[in-house]
Amino acid sequence: MSVSLLYAFAGVALCAMGGLGFTVLEHLLRKLLAFNLMGSGVFLVLVGLAQHRGVPDPVPQAMVLTGIVVTIAATALAVVLMRRYYHLSGQTGLVVCEERKEPME
Amino acid sequence: MGRLTLVTAGMVFSGVFAGLAWAVWTIAEAPVPVSLPTLVSENLQAAGVEHPVTAVLLNFRSYDTLLEIAVLVIAGIAGISMSRTRSLEDPGLRTSDSLLYALERWFFPVMMLFAGYLLWAGSDRPGGAFQAGSVLAATAVLMRLGGVPMDFLRPGVMLRLGLTVGFSVFLVVALASALDGDVFLQYPEVITKPLIVLIETGLTLSIAMVLLALFVAAPIDPAEELEEGGAE
Amino acid sequence: MTDWLIDLTLVVALLVTGAATLLSRDLFRAVVMFIAFGLLMSLGWVRLHAPDIALAEAAIGAGLSGVLLLDAARHLGEVRRPSQRGEGEESD
Amino acid sequence: MTPWLMAGLLFTPLAWAVLTLFPAFRLGRVLTRLGILAQFLVAAGLWMTVAQDGGFYYPLGGWKAPLGIELRVDGLAVTFVVLTAVVACACGWHAGDYLSPETGRHRYFWPLFWFLWAGLNGVWLGADLFNLYVGLELISLCSVGLVALAGNVGALRAAIRYLLAALLGSLAYLLGVALIYGQFGSLSLAGIQALVASAESFPGAGVGLFIMILGLALKTALFPLHGWLPPAHGIAKSPVSALLSALVVKASFYIAARLWLALGEELGSFVLAQAVGVAGALAVILGSWLAFCQSRLKQVVAYSSVAQIGYLFLLFPLTFGVPDSVVQLAQQGIALQVISHALAKAAMFLAAGNLILSVGSNRVEALAGVSRFLPFSLFSFALAGVSLMGLPPSGGFTAKWLLLQASLASGQWWWLAVLLLGGLLSAAYVFRIYRASFVESRGQDQFYHPPRVLEAIPMMLALMSLCLGFVSEPVLAVMSLPFEEGG
Amino acid sequence: MASGALLPVFALMTSLLASLIIFTLPEDRGRVRTLVNIGAALIKLALVAVMIRGVAIGQEYLLAFDMLPGVEFVLRADALAMLFAGLSALLWLLTTIYAIGYLEASPNRSRFFGFFSLCVASTMGIALAGNLFTFFIFYEMLTLSTYPLVVHRGTPKALRAGRNYLIYTLTGGAVLLLGIVCLHGLVGDLRFQEGGHFAGAGPELRGALPWVFFLLVSGLGVKAALVPLHGWLPQAMVAPAPVSALLHAVAVVKAGAFGIVRVVFEVFGLESAQSMGLLSVLVVVASVTILYGSAMALYQVDLKRRLAFSTISQVSYIVLGLCLFGPVGAAGGLVHLVNQGIMKITLFFCAGNYAETLGAHRIDELDGAGKRMPGTSVAFTIAAFGMIGAPPLAGFITKWMLGIGALAEGMDWVVGVLILSSVLNAAYFLPILHRLWFRERTTPWPKEYRWGRLETSVWLFWPPLMTAVMTMAIGVFAAMPFSPLAWVILIVSREVAL
C-alpha cells in the first residue's frame, strides 16, 4: 500500500459521498457541489491508482487537467442555467415545490 | 425525501463504496502490463517540450485537448445564449467594497504577471495554458466584482472572437499540419515548440474569456423583469 | 512515517470538508466548505507529485468555481413564490 | 484522398461551428447549408473508400496507440458517420426554416449544431477511452445548450435535469476509465482488448466495465434511468428533439456496445448481461405503455424513444456466452435497429413539429381532422411509425427479424416475447395518434400549412427508414468489413 | 434478370404507383383520379393475364434478392399465385368502378383511393410472394393499408372497429412472425415449393414442426377469421361497402386463407402435414367455423353483418377442402377461393346499393326492394343461390367437389357438415329473398336517392350484375379451359402429383 493508493481510496470515498449527495439533496446548487466532490473523487482515483507504484504518470495527470476544465465548464453552464431557471420560476429544485404550485390554466 | 429513501440511498452508496474500494484494491495488486510513463519519457525528445504533462496535453493527446476546448466554447455559447442579450455588463453589480478596491491596486498586476509566467513556464515546468487561463479568469472575475468596467463583455463580435480565438488557432494549426500530407495535429518537427506556445497563448486567452463570460452570463438581479424570457 | 501522517491528515481533512459541504444547513457555508475542500485538494495534488493539477485546482477549483458558486449561492436563496407563468409547451 | 476525407469529417464541423458563431441567424443558415452539403459528400466519400478498401486506424498527431490517440475507421463507424450526415442534414435543413429568425438566441443553434455533429463523428470513430469521454461531454453540453434554446421554464428545468444526468453518467464512465487504466495502463480499446484476451481474470476491471456501462446506460436513458429524457426531448424545439433522439442517445449506447463487444466476454458476467437485458425489456414494455398514456404529441414520441432504446440493450444478453454466429446476428440486428430508429425517430419528431406548427397545439386530441387536411405531414409520421412498430418492409422489421433469430439461436427464448410484445405495444401508441387524426370534427380547413420543404424532409427520412429493409443486406455487408492490416 | 423477372414487379408496381399518384392528387381532381384508378386496374389485369398464359405453358417468373444475410425476398408467379392474383386483379377493377360511384360526393377520396390501391398492391404481393418472409411483408402491409379504409368514416364506431381490427390482426401478425422465425431457425430460408419441404423430415424436426404449424396457422387464422379468432370481422362492417366487399372477397380474409393454403401445400406439403396429424385438428376447426358462422348469421338483422358471418362460414370451406387430404377435396377448397370471392363481392355490392340508393341497412327495411331495384336484386338473388349451393351456380361446384372429396377419403361426417351448412345458408338467405320479391312496400324508403333513368348510379349498377353473371358462368362453364376449376385442377395436379 502506497501513499498514492491512500488517495485513491479517499477518491472512492468522495465518489460515494458525492453520489449520495447528488441523489439525495434537492437544492440544485447542492447537487452541483456534490457533483464537484464526486468529480474530485474520480480524479483522485484516476491519478492515485495509476501512480500507486510511486512513479508519476503524466498521462492521467493530463487527463485530470482536461477533466477539471470540462468540469468547470459544465459547472459554470449549470450555474447559468440554474440562475436563469430560478429567475423565471423562483424554484431551486427540480421537483420539490411542485405540489405548492398553484394550479395552472 | 422520506427517511426510507435516505436509508436506501445510504445503503446503496455504501455498497458502491465497498465495491469500488475492493476493485481498487485488487487492481493495485495486479501488475500493469503497459507502462505509458516510460513511453512518454522515451518520446519526450520528439515532443518539442520538456514538461511531460504539457507534451501529453498538446502533442501526444492533442486531439483530447482540442475537443476539450471545444467543450469550453460550447459551454460559453450555451451560457451567453441564455443571458439577457442586451449587455453582459451589469452596472448594478459593482460593489464599493473597499477591500476589493484596495486589492485592485496591486493584486491585479501581480496576477497578470503570474498568469504570464505560468503560460511561459508550461513548456518545461509545471504550468501551462489551463492554469494561466484560469488564473486570468479568476483575476478578471475579482476585477469585475470590484467594479472594473468591462465593455468587451458585450455579446458582440469581440466577445465571440475572444471565445474562439484559442480554439481557432488550434484548429488552424491542426489543419495546416496536414497540408504537407502528414496526419492531423502532427506538427512539423522544426517548429513544434513555437506552435505549441502559440496554441497555448490562444488557449489561455480563450479559457479566461469563456470562464469570465459564463460567470457574467448568469442573470444577476432576481427582482427585475420577471416577464422577460419565456414569451417571445 | 511523517509522510504517512501528513497524507493521512490531509485525506481525513478532505473527507471532513467534503462531508461538511454536503451536510451544512446553510448554503453559503456549504460553498465556503467547498472552497476549503478545493484548497485541500490542491495540497493533495502536490502530495501526488502533480504540481500542474495542483495549480489548476487552486485556480479553478478553489478560486474560480468558488467565486462562481458563492455568487450563485448569494442569489439562489430561498424558494420564491412561483410566478404565474405556465410551464410552457413548445411555444411554436 | 483519405486524409482529406478525414479532415473534412473531423475538422469541417469544428470550423463551421466557429464560422457560424459570428453571423446572425439567416446568414448562419446559408453558411450551414453549404457546410451540410460538403459534410454529406465527405461522409459519403469516406463510406465508399472504406467499402472499397476496408477499415483502418488513423493515428492523430502521428502518435500511435497507446501513447497517442487513434481513430478506428471501420465499416460500422463509417456507416454511423453516414447516418449522422443524413439525419443531421435533414434536421439542420429543417431547422433553418422551422426556427424563427426573429428570436435572438436562435442564432446560437448553428454553432451548437455543428459542435454536436463534430462530437458525434468523434464518438463513432473514437477508439480511445478518454477521448470518448471528452467526446461524450462535448455532445452532452451541446445537447443541453440546444434544449435550453427553447427558453421557457419547462425547457430550462428539462435542460438542468438533462445536464445533471449527463454529467453523472460521464463521471461514472470516467471512474470506470480510471479503474481500467489502473488495471491495464492503457487507454486504447484495441490494446485493452488484446490484453484482456490473455488468460488472466481481471475482477477489478470488471467493476470498471460495470460502472462504465451503468453511466452510459444513464446517458442513453435506459429504464429505470430514463427520467430525464422525456422532458428534454419533449420540450426542445422539434429539430433539436430529432437530433437528440436520433443520434445523441445513440452515441452513448454505441460506446457501451463497443466496450461490451470488446471486453464483455472476459470482463462481464452472465448476470450483468441478463440484468441489462431485463432493464431493456422493461424499457420496451413500460416505455411503450407510458407513451400510450401521454396526452401531448411530443411526449408520446419521446417516451417511444425510451421504449426503442430498450431494444438496443438486448445486445448485451444476446452476445454473452453464445456462439459467434449468434453474436453476429445480434450485432447486425442492433446496428440495423439503431439506424432505422434514428431515421424513423428523426422523421417522427420533425413531422410532429410540423403537426404542432399546423394545429397550434401539442395535444394529441388537437389532431382531429388532420388526416383530411394535412395528409402529407401525417403520412410521414405514419411511415415513421411503421418502422417503430417493426412492421415490414422497414428497417425496424429486418432488425427485429435478426433479433428474433438471435434470441432463438441463443436459446434465450424469453426475449422473443419482449420483441413481439414491444411491437404490439408500439402499434398501440402509434395508432393512437392516427386514430386521433381520423376523427372528423371540423368541417373546414383551419390549419396552418407549413412550407413544402418542412414537409418534404420528414417524408424523405421516413421513406428511407421504410426502404432500409430492402437494402439491409448491402448495408450490413459494409458494416462487417474486415480491417485492413496496419492502415 | 430477364423480362420474366420483371413482370411480377410490374404487376405490383402498377397499383403501388397508382396509390402514390393518387395520394398526391388534390381532392378536387376527380377525373384524373378516376383515370388513374381504372387505368392501373386495366394494366394490372392485362399483366396478370399475360402471366397466367405464361404459367399455363410452364414459364417461370421469378425475382429474388437477399434482404438480409440468408433471407431472401422472392417474387414468383406460379399457378397458385396466379389463381389469387387473377381473382384480385379482376375484382379490383370492378370494385374500383363501384367505389368511384359509391364515394362520389364524400370527402377524403384521395386518401381512400390511395389506400385502396395500396391494399390491392399488398394483395398482389401476397399472391406473388415466393417464401414466407416475403409473404409476411405483404401480409403486414395489407393490415396497415386496410386500417385507414376501415376507419374511413371517422365515426366513433368506425374508430372502435378499427382498433379491434388492429388488435386482432397485429397480434395475429406477431404470432405468424414468431412461427416464421421459428421455422427459419429450424430449417433456414424456404421458398414455397410444390409438394412442400418436409416429405422426408427426420424425427427431430417432427417434434418441433407441429408447434410451428400451430403458430403459423393461428397467425393466419386471424385474418381468415377462423373461430375463435373471428371477432374483428363483423365489427369491420362499419367500413364503406366497397371496402367490405374488398375485405371479404379478395383482400384480408382471403389473404389469411391463401396463406393457410401456401403453408399446407407448399411449406409442409399435403402428405407430411397429414402424416404429422396436423390436418385432423384443422378440419375440426374449419367445420366448427362453418357451422358457427352460418348459425350466427341467422340472428343478424343488419344485412352487412349477416353477410359478414356468412363470410366467416364460407371462407372455412377453403380450409376444409385442404384438410380432406385428397386431390378432389383440395380442388374444391381452392376453387372456393375464387367462387366465394365473386359471390360475396356481388352480395356486398348489392348491400351497398340498397344502402346508398334506398338508405336500407337492416334486412327488415328491404321489403319490396326487388321492384324498386330489379337489377341489383336479381344479382343478389343469383349470388345468394350460389352461396346456398344451388346448381349450376359457382357455389354448387365447391360443395360438390368437397362432398366427393370427403367421401373419397372416408370422412363421411364432413358431408353432414356440408349439408347442415347448406340448410343454414338457405335459412339465412331465403328470408331476404322473400322480403325482396314477395313483400309489398308499405312505408317510404328510409333515405332515397334518384339517379335518372337507372335504378341507381351507373357506377353502382353494373359491377354487381357483372359479378352475378360470372357466378353463373363459373358454374356453367366449369369444364372449359382457364375456368377456375380447370386452373385449380392444374394446381392440384402439380401439388399432389396425381
TrEMBL record, chain A:
<feature type="transmembrane region" description="Helical">
    <location>
        <begin position="62"/>
        <end position="82"/>
    </location>
</feature>
<feature type="transmembrane region" description="Helical">
    <location>
        <begin position="6"/>
        <end position="25"/>
    </location>
</feature>
<keyword id="KW-0812">Transmembrane</keyword>
<dbReference type="Pfam" id="PF00420">
    <property type="entry name" value="Oxidored_q2"/>
</dbReference>
<feature type="transmembrane region" description="Helical">
    <location>
        <begin position="32"/>
        <end position="50"/>
    </location>
</feature>
<dbReference type="InterPro" id="IPR039428">
    <property type="entry name" value="NUOK/Mnh_C1-like"/>
</dbReference>
<comment type="similarity">
    <text>Belongs to the CPA3 antiporters (TC 2.A.63) subunit C family.</text>
</comment>
<keyword id="KW-0472">Membrane</keyword>
<keyword id="KW-1133">Transmembrane helix</keyword>
<protein>
    <submittedName>
        <fullName>NADH-quinone oxidoreductase subunit K</fullName>
    </submittedName>
</protein>
<dbReference type="InterPro" id="IPR050601">
    <property type="entry name" value="CPA3_antiporter_subunitC"/>
</dbReference>
<keyword id="KW-1003">Cell membrane</keyword>
Automatic annotation (TrEMBL), chain C:
<feature type="transmembrane region" description="Helical">
    <location>
        <begin position="6"/>
        <end position="23"/>
    </location>
</feature>
<protein>
    <submittedName>
        <fullName>DUF4040 domain-containing protein</fullName>
    </submittedName>
</protein>
<keyword id="KW-1003">Cell membrane</keyword>
<keyword id="KW-0812">Transmembrane</keyword>
<feature type="domain" description="MrpA C-terminal/MbhD">
    <location>
        <begin position="13"/>
        <end position="77"/>
    </location>
</feature>
<dbReference type="Pfam" id="PF13244">
    <property type="entry name" value="MbhD"/>
</dbReference>
<feature type="transmembrane region" description="Helical">
    <location>
        <begin position="30"/>
        <end position="48"/>
    </location>
</feature>
<feature type="transmembrane region" description="Helical">
    <location>
        <begin position="54"/>
        <end position="73"/>
    </location>
</feature>
<keyword id="KW-0472">Membrane</keyword>
<keyword id="KW-1133">Transmembrane helix</keyword>
<dbReference type="InterPro" id="IPR025383">
    <property type="entry name" value="MrpA_C/MbhD"/>
</dbReference>
